[in-house]
Each structure stands twice: as C-alpha cells, then as structure tokens.
Amino acid sequence: MRVLVTDSVANDGLLLLRERVPVDERIGLDEEGLVAIIGEYDALVVRSSTKVTRRVIEAGCRLQVIGRAGVGVDNIDVEAATERGILVVNAPDGNSVAAAEHTIAMMMALARHIPQADASVRAHKWERKQFVGIEVTGKALGVVGMGRIGREVARRARGLGMRVLACDPYVSTEQAERLGVEMCDLDDLLAGADFITVHTPLTPATRGLIGERELGMVKPTARLINCARGGVVDEAALQEALVTGRLAGAALDVFVSEPPFDSALLQSPQLIVTPHLGASTREAQVAVAVDVARQILDVLAGRPAMHPVNAPFIPPETQSQLLPFCELSEKLGQMASQLVGRRLHQVRITYAGQLADMDTGLLRALIIKGLLQGVTETRITLVNASLIARERGLRVVEEKTADAGNFANLITLSFTDNGQERVLSGTIFRDQPYVVCIDRYWLDFVARGHQLLIYHRDRPGLVGEVGLLTGRADINIAAMSVGRLQPRGEALMVITLDEGASPEMRAKIEALSDVYATQLLEL
C-alpha cells in the first residue's frame, strides 16, 4: 500500500500515515504529472490546489480512496471516482470552528471598517469621522446554509446579541428551535438581514445563488460575506451592487478564480478580501490532516470511513451496533449469488428488530457487493455498488419491521430462482455472522469458509456415512448443522469444511441413498 500527498498537509497527519504505510509527497503536480504516477498509489491526499480530474482518476488503477484535507470536494471529480468504485472522504468537522470564526471576523471588519482604517493610519491620516461604523448587537444576521459551519456561525452571532435568520430546506423546526434561529425562505432572509453570510457547497443548484435578483432585494445598508465557495455569489452582480450603492459592503474570502488578481471587484473600496483563509488556523490544519489520515488508514484496512462523500455514512451513535452486521451482509449476498448461480433481477432485503430503526444504507451496499462481485469483472465497492446494480438491471427492494421473531436482529434476503421463492436469513451471535435460515430450513452456522450443503431425506446413519466419506478423503469437518421439516422428512445438512470438497467427493456423497443434491459455497 502506498499513499501520495500532492498538497501541503500538516505534519501530524503525515506522521500518522507513515506509521502504517509508505508516503510520498509530491507537491504542486499538474494534471500531466499526476496522471503519470498515480497508477502506483492506493490512496491520494489533497487539499484545494490539486485538481483530481477524470483523467487522473482513470489513470489511478490501484486507487481505493481520495482524501480531501478540508470540507469542499469541488476540486475532485466525485462522479468519476464513484464510477470507478473509489471512495472520496473529507474532513468536515476539523475546520468548522476556524471558518466560523473567520466569518465573524469578516463581519466585524465590515461593521467597523477595520482594513480601511488601518490603511488610512499607515498613510499618515487620522480620519475618525470617515470610519464611523455600526454595532452588530441587535442586528439581524442571515445565514444561508445551516451545515456545520453555518451552525457555528449562528451560535457565535447569538452570543453577540444578534437575531439570526436562517435558510436551509434540510433543517427541521425542532433543530431551528434548538439553535435559536428563525427559519425563513431566501427572499425573506435577504430582505430582513443586516448582514448576510453564505455557507453552502458549490453545486449546480447553488452556483450564482446570490445574483442580480437576490442583491436587488437586500437593504442598501446590508453587508454580504462569503467564506464558503467562489461562485455561490455572482461576482459581476456583486460588483454592480457595490458600485451603485445597492449594497453597503461585502467581504470575500473565496473567488471563482483564485487568485483573483484580474477581477474588477478588487477596485471596490467597499470590499474586504482575504486569500482563502477560512480554514487557515494551526488547529484546523492539524485537525483536518489527522482526520483524513485516520480515514485513509481505515479504508486501506478494509474498515468504513467516518466521513464518506460518495458512500453510505454510518452515524457515530449507531456504529457499534451496525458494524458487526457488515460482514454478515456481504456474506448473505455472496450466498444468494452462489445458490442461484446466475444473475438475479430482484432481491428483497428485510431488516428486522433493532436494525429497523437504523440507517442501513451501508448494509444494502454490502449485500449488493456480495451479490454482484462474482458475476462481473468490475471492481465493486461500497461506492459504486448501487450504480452497478442499476446498470445490471438488479432491483433491490428494502423493508423494515420491528418483528424479528426469536432474534434481536435479523437480515433476510428473498429472491426468485427458476420460479421458486428462496430465502436466506442471518444474524449476529457471539460477535460472529451466523446464517440461521435457508429456504424452509432453520439451522445455524458461521458464514465463513467452505460450506457444503447436502439436501437429503432425514434418516438414521446418514450423518455418519457423510463423515466416513470426508474422513477417508482426509477432509476435516469443522462444524455441522442440520435443519429438517419433520423427523425422517426433507432436510438440509450444512457442514463446514477446513478445505473445499472436490467434485469427486461431492459425487460420492450424492451417491448415498436419500441424498438429493449437494452444493459447495465459498464464503
């Protein structure tokens, strides 16, 4: 395993990586340089400077994960990574406080004309009357986007005695009450706010979110702050609003093109600018570097990441309960695929018991991975599992129920095989993934290794005859489970073998009286 780092990352994160894997630092590579070497690496760590394009991703034949030491991932082609099954992770928590504090600092600088007053004094002027400011206490701050950073800004603004208006379609009334903010639509926020700050990612839906129409709705005394992403605010419309006095002032930390030396905005005296400093604190740089390093190591070790961008997310409060079911889910998918031996068109997944109250997106992806990995050459991961399922015409239906029968939790796969309804159920017992039902037969065995299924009529002596044949072949039986419909009726025997049974061995078992068929599953 090798990791490539192409942007400056805090040494704390690099040290953490180097304790486990070789790490190469190649700062400042352009696309051609990155394409030339990325095929040698299993993981890539970037910040905002490196552009991880589709060409780079397609050249990364070994890439498993791309880590962004920060929040935004607009410099990474996430769609291309998803198609290739490459996980993209970021560090959304590490710089939230830094970005929020920078936003508040920009607001205070706007309110008191601090940069302009500083420049005036340095020019040997003493223009106190020219720099009369306003107080923020009692003013309304409009926060567009109540994600992690938006919430931190709102908390600090309330501490300054401000009234906080917020616009975010994904924030519930209950959350708004807890945060002490007033939810409203964008138009009402723009019309009512004295200061406006945006904290949304840059997406097709948010590009130009604050444009000519929106700036035409604000108070002439209002001030705008953007410490989120360049492009969320229409720069041409902002310049016009500043020039015409439609807006009292603005503060930008981010721009469409960085550095913005050719931007006419820099000529506006009402504008305060900083060079993308929102996350630039020592504490934040260390936090995001360590966060991403830990996730890179988790992914390379086969563990789920804490902050996946393009894969199912496991909430921290349910991780300890959900993680034991990860292996079981993939094994159930593998079993279903091997039992049928051909492509399925539909699978129904039922989560029963305590699982019904959890986000099971991760388990769904793992089941799909188990179902399809053996029937396609495409590398299937948690990232692209659902995409490949759609491409191959596999319909996955999910349902949840609190009733798990005699179990605390149960995962059941239902599917059709040549017109016959088939069922697989599994649970966790003693921290092990157990299969407890195959079709009509209730039994229990650990879903690992070589499992030989023997369909037969229940009769005395058959178990011994099977054991005799495996013993003569020097094949050790590690465990056995038998499920039957009734005494001396149809039954299913599952024996766990230390090594796989050859076709010749299976033929001898099938030749025993009352044995209908055998099937070997490799888990």
Describe this structure in words.
This protein has helices at 11-18, 31-37, 54-59, 78-83, 96-112, 114-122, 148-159, 173-179, 186-192, 212-215, 235-243, 282-300, 319-322, 324-340, 361-372, 385-391, 462-472, 503-510, and strands at 3-5, 23-25, 43-46, 65-68, 87-90, 140-144, 163-167, 182-183, 195-198, 223-226, 249-252, 271-273, 346-353, 395-401, 409-417, 420-429, 432-438, 441-446, 450-457, 477-484, 490-497, 515-522. The protein has 523 residues and is an alpha/beta fold. It folds into three domains: 3-92 and 283-311, NAD(P)-binding Rossmann-like Domain (Rossmann fold); 96-273, Rossmann fold (3-Layer(aba) Sandwich), CATH 3.40.50.720; 317-522, D-3-phosphoglycerate dehydrogenase, domain 3 (60s Ribosomal Protein L30, Chain: A, 2-Layer Sandwich), CATH 3.30.1330. α1 packs parallel to α12 (282-300), α14 (324-340) packs parallel to α15 and α15 crosses α16. The model has no long low-confidence stretch (mean pLDDT 93).
Overall helicity: 25-40%
Average pLDDT rating: 93
| Main β-sheet description | 7 strands, parallel
Alpha plus pi helix count: 18
Anisotropy-based shape? elongated
Q: Radius of gyration over alpha carbons?
A: 30 Å
- In total, the number of strands is 22
CATH topology of the largest domain: 60s Ribosomal Protein L30, Chain: A
CATH architecture of the largest domain: 2-Layer Sandwich
Distance N to C terminus: 25 Å
Strand order of the largest sheet: 8-7-6-9-10-11-12
Proportion of residues in extended strands: 15-25%
Give the class from helix and strand content and strand pairing.
Answer: alpha/beta
In CATH, the homologous superfamily of the largest domain goes by the name D-3-phosphoglycerate dehydrogenase, domain 3
